[in-house]
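Risk register update: the risk of archive-format incompatibility is retired. Evidence:
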Amino acid sequence: MKSINITKALLAGLAIFFISFLVGGGSYFLFSWVFNLEPSAIWKWTPAQGLDMPAEWWVVLFLLNIVLAVAFAFIYALIEKGLPGKGIQKGLGFGIIIWIVGPIPALVTMYLMMNIAAGALIYFALQSFFEWLVYGAVISLIYKEKNYPPSINSG
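Archived output:
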């Protein structure tokens, strides 16, 4: 069984947690017009509200994001040997895989089950693609694979 460097996985998870608030949060404010596309009454929060949400909302958001970020870093640590490429290429590939199995099905479900603007869905798809590329790259830079010398028996 592959051993995982727990310290690096935790560090990578915490790094993408902080980056998610900078990149994700920043992009919501930068592209806040997306929340004004009709129908706009579906949102519980919009960037126009700023940070004006109940404390419980922030606690749940932070805890959920920390747990998920660390979980994704551990998943990367478990499968990094099987990812194609080297270094950052592994991270970018991981980001694309997570984007395909995470945000894309959620966005398709939103489209099928909610009255949501197509422009908002396109924005969220592009934004999440960019974010997952960044997260994968950061995880791969922090959780570098070890370059073991070839063994005598691997001939």
